Structures are given as structure tokens and as C-alpha cells.
Amino acid sequence: MKTRAAVAFEAKKPLEIVELDLEGPKDGEVLVEIMATGICHTDAYTLDGLDSEGLFPSVLGHEGAGIVREVGKGVTSVKPGDHVIPLYTPECRQCKSCLSGKTNLCTAIRATQGKGVMPDGTSRFSYKGQTIFHYMGCSTFSNFTVLPEISVAKIREDAPFDKSCYIGCGVTTGVGAVTNTAKVEAGDNIIVFGLGGIGLNVLQAARMVGANKIIGVDINNDKEEWGRKYGMTHFVNPNEIEGDIVQHLVELTDGGAEYTFDCTGNTVVMRQALEACHRGWGVSIVIGVAEAGKEIATRPFQLVTGRVWKGTAFGGAKGRTDVPKIVDWYMNGKIEIDSMITHTLTLEEINKGFDLMHEGKSIRSVVVY
Ligand code: NAD
Ligand code: AHE
Ligand code: ZN
């Protein structure tokens, strides 16, 4: 079949809207009509050539929602007509990682996914006979896409696609970092570095669990008003304080925060986040994705004296199990999404979504097909 898609033909070039050829689902795969997709900073990072796994030409996008239109042989958990959210972190429930109960990082198809192909080693997308790679196992910047059955979460049918798509990455990542990875408790002080599409979701989850001081750090002053909407109690712009940012934050939290979250992808900020943790028990969670070649550093003494450095992918969520529950949280009003979607675009306008992100003018742009 044919599908309209925004293709990344080369790094650092705008996406091009073209009609691709798409092969149907093979055994264990499903064809999904994507109804809406968010644009996450990770898509921009890959398009900018900063991802060591980045492949071109490819169909980016990993924050979608849609409807199953066809299933391949052996598919039992979904059927045509089901509403689904594609998962860049699948949940096979059979691999060593899934069975361990210790992680959400299913390893069933990670190797092929990282090479931009389906589990059988081939791509379903092509353009004028040339292979086009999949991205993060999702490729939601295409109106139709093929996914492994283990990479879709079935969701309730009354959830609007143009909002629930955000649960495919940003919402689950930010909320899950608080509830699954950090397990923030009522009364804890937390600090969030980077108040974008992920950081604001960390804030709203911290408010939800009853955190005490909820401190937001951003170099863009426009983010203060945004942060306050989702429970931020204090705002700090590191460029506008006197002296050292870490010392400032440690004083503000009477010795450091229980939990800090990096939502910038900047390795200098990651160090500040670790060092702003409380001596003896503070935990810093790396959410931001750093560019290829970057490394983190701190004095080992920071760890010797009880600070803990952790990371999280997809907020530690097990997609097929947890995503439907997060959709319920949204539909029941426990978490907010609508007000974070600042721009709704057509596929033809998708590059504008990237521009708005780089200019700091959007929280989330969503493309509706
Ligand atoms: P975004 O562009 O919406 O927000 C980033 C925010 O960081 C902006 O408000 C920006 O002003 C701020 N910022 C930039 N440099 C800063 C600095 N030096 N100090 C303080 N603030 C600074 O991006 P997003 O969509 O929220 O994504 C944030 C990060 O999370 C990205 O690195 C993205 O790739 C990553 N991410 C990771 C996961 C995961 O599973 N671990 C999931 C989604 C996104
Ligand atoms: N491919 C990069 C790393 C990119 C990365 O860390 N991705 C996150 C999700 S970001 C979503 O916006 C993730 O899930 N990582 C775990 C995984 O298995 O990819 C690189 O450095 O190679
Ligand atoms: Zn993302």
C-alpha cells in the first residue's frame, strides 16, 4: 500500500513529505493507521545527527496513537479496529528482562529495532525502490506504519488521539520517572532541570504524589509561568542567580533535594543535578538524552557520600501493562495533557513543529493526520 510520510532523508535537513510504499504486516506484526503524533525532543536530536544510532533515510516519530487496520498471522492480543499507542519500549513478557521484574527494558527486539528494521531484519518502508528505515520501532511520522504486536498498547476508545499520543512518550516518561523510577514520596523536595515536554510532566507527577518543594530550573524565563501551572513552587534561572547553581539549590532545599531530574540532555546539567541531591540519600534521575560522544563526570566523593545516579527510559513503564492505566489517569482527570499541547499541525507543517521546539516557543506540537 501507499502511505503519506514525513521522511528524514538526511541529517540536519527538513523532513520531506512524500508517498512511500509500505508492505503489509508479516507474522506477529500489525498495521496501524496513525491518527496523531507528538514531536519529542528525541526526534529533533536524531534529525540533528546527534544520535549514535541515527539512520537515514528514515521515518522518525515515536509518540503516536492510532487504530489497528490489519494483523499478521499469529497476532492474538489486538484486532482490526482496536485503538493503540505504539511502544518504543515493547513488552514481550517472555524475555529475560521482562521476566526479571526488575526493568521495563524488554530485549526481545532491541537489536533489530536499533538497526531500523523489523524483527525479521527487513524494513516495511521503501521509496522508489530504496529502503527507508524504521525509527525506534514506531515511525509515527507516517500515516500508516507496521509494528510488532509486542510494540502496541491497546487503549480505551474514548481517549482522543490528538492528546493520548503524548502518552506514547513525554507524559509516561515524566510521570513514570517520578512514580516508577524515583518513587517520590509525600514531603520530598524535588528539583527538575529543563521545563519542556518532559520536565512539566515530572512537575505534575511530583504534585500528584504530594512532594513538598517542587523546584524548576530553566534558562528560559518563559518556562516559569508554565512550571507554576503544574505545581512548581520555586523557579530558578541559573543565568540570573549570583554564584554557583548547585550551592543555590542546596541552600534552597536545606542540604539538597531528595530527588532531582535532568530533562535537558546536557551533561553539565546532569552533574549539577547529581550534586544538588541531599548528602546521604539524594537520588538523581537522568532522563535527558545526551548527544553521541558526551560523557558524565563528578567527583566519586559525591557517590561515596550517598548520592545515587540513576537513569530512566520511558519512565520505567511496562508499555502494554502501564500505558492503558496512564490513559485512564488522563481520562479521569488525575493528570493533565490538553494544556501542554500548544500547537496542532498538519503533516505538511511538521517542520514548523521542530522550529517551535528549537525556539522554545512550544511545549508539545502534535501532528494530526
Ligand atoms: P524540550 O525541548 O521540550 O525541553 C527542554 C527544556 O530544557 C527547555 O525548556 C530548555 O529551555 C531547557 N534547557 C535547555 N538547556 C538547559 C540548561 N542548560 N539548563 C536548564 N534548562 C535547560 O525537550 P523535551 O521533549 O522535554 O525532552 C527533554 C529531554 O528528554 C531530551 O534530551 C529528550 O531527548 C529526552 N527524553 C528522554 C526520554 C527517556 O525515555 N529517557 C524520553 C523522552 C525524552
Ligand atoms: N539511541 C541513543 C539513545 C536514545 C535513548 O536513550 N532513547 C531513550 C528514549 S528517548 C525517547 O524520547 C530510550 O528508551 N533508551 C533506551 C533504549 O533502549 O533505547 C544512543 O545513545 O544510542
Ligand atoms: Zn520521546
From TrEMBL:
CDD domains membership: alcohol_DH_class_III
Domain called Alcohol dehydrogenase-like C-terminal: residue spans: 197-329
Catalytic reaction list: a primary alcohol + NAD(+) = an aldehyde + NADH + H(+); S-(hydroxymethyl)glutathione + NAD(+) = S-formylglutathione + NADH + H(+); a secondary alcohol + NAD(+) = a ketone + NADH + H(+); S-(hydroxymethyl)glutathione + NADP(+) = S-formylglutathione + NADPH + H(+)
EC number in record: 1.1.1.284
InterPro entries: ADH-like_C, ADH-like_N, ADH_3, ADH_Zn_CS, GroES-like_sf, NAD(P)-bd_dom_sf
Keywords assigned: Metal-binding, NAD, Oxidoreductase, Zinc
GO BP annotations, alphabetical order: formaldehyde catabolic process
Cofactor: Zn(2+)
EC top class named in words: oxidoreductase
Residue ranges of domain Alcohol dehydrogenase-like N-terminal in the record: 26-118
Molecular functions per Gene Ontology: alcohol dehydrogenase (NAD+) activity; S-(hydroxymethyl)glutathione dehydrogenase (NAD+) activity; S-(hydroxymethyl)glutathione dehydrogenase (NADP+) activity; zinc ion binding
Gene Ontology, cellular component aspect: cytosol
Pfam family for this entry, one: ADH_zinc_N
NCBIfam families: adh_III_F_hyde
Family: Belongs to the zinc-containing alcohol dehydrogenase family. Class-III subfamily.
PANTHER family, alphabetized: ALCOHOL DEHYDROGENASE, ALCOHOL DEHYDROGENASE CLASS-3
Record-given protein name: S-(hydroxymethyl)glutathione dehydrogenase
Organism name: Hirschia baltica (strain ATCC 49814 / DSM 5838 / IFAM 1418)
